[in-house]
Amino acid sequence: MRILGIETSCDETGIAVYDNKLGLIVNKLNSQSFLHNKYGGVVPELAARNHLDQIFIFLQEFEKKKNFFSSIDAIAYTAGPGLVGPLLVGATVACSLAFSLNIPVVPVNHIEGHLLSPMLDSSNLNFPFLGLLISGGNTQLIHAKKLGVYKLLGKTLDIAVGNLFDKIAKILDLKYPGGPNISELAKFGKNRNFKFPRPMINDSSLNFSFSGLRTFIEKLVKFSDKSFQTKADIALELEESIIEIFIVKVCRALKLLNLNTLVIVGGVSANCRLRNYFSNFSNKNDLNLFLVSKKYCTDNAAMISYTGFLKFKSGVYFPNTDIFVDSKWCVDSKRKFI
Ligand code: KG4
Known about the structure:
Blueprint: E1 2-7, E2 12-19, E3 23-31, H1 33-36, H2 44-63, E4 74-80, H3 84-101, E5 105-109, H4 110-116, E6 129-134, E7 139-146, E8 149-155, H5 161-171, H6 178-186, H7 211-223, H8 228-257, E9 261-265, H9 272-284, E10 288-291, H10 302-313
Parallel strand pairs: 1-4, 4-5, 6-9, 9-10
Antiparallel strand pairs: 1-2, 2-3, 6-7, 7-8
The protein binds 5'-O-[(R)-(carboxyoxy)(hydroxy)phosphoryl]adenosine (KG4).
């Protein structure tokens, strides 16, 4: 069985093919960061247009391969959450292609795709587990009970943590996407002169809030010297404060659910300091930790084709090719497709 996956929820165009015997046999990704760099964030209209150009470049490459399309059993695509224009591009291409090949489509929830992404290279990850999804558009704690059954335990009440990294990077004159640049800069941080607030850390809920932290740093930068060392110290303290918030909330959630398997996914999970802290934390607490491998941290179609494969195998797909997108599709909504 072969599933073609399409990812266009934000600023990465991805196409991948997952084969039940061979695993991932195609994994193409084109990042648009060059396009959005000068704006310091993603411009939805530009993103949608670029997806449309890039997706056809990939499809034309595949057309040259003998029997490529005839070997596909279904097409999975990211149907939400995400930016509506970019989502519609992927959905329209997926549904049109499926119609012409006379095969079904599998609308995939982007968050579920991220949650299952560690399974691409860890066969020993099993349900149930606690998922910490930290990306550019989302920050969520999720109880993953079984395939398709999730409970959202907490989420950001304002901006996502990746978005915070991108905004602080802009303030510090670093390029978009900010996360990797802040992470590099933080390596030079050495003075722990700054103490940032840890918003909602003592709040009994499992929700997060990062916009106050952004305002705090914005004001701090305005009134401090703009030396490289000061910027590096700010980047270091930013990472430290965020990691502390995540450790506290994750501990609380694991205790509440009596679980000892933790999955960390999404673009921000590429952060080295965060990976080190959580690895030490899991060793000390005898936790099963699954950190998504760095190549699948940010948005990609590998996770969409793999999730599409699991869904298709369990009978969850659209028998017809009606276009469906939901830009706010919550991972625990009870949507049924058949
Ligand atoms: O998963 P992803 O592609 O999410 C969405 O587009 O929603 O993640 C992108 C986010 C960006 O905000 C980027 O700044 C952040 O992940 N990111 C990082 C790192 N690498 C990427 N944040 C912190 N440290 C990193 N090393």
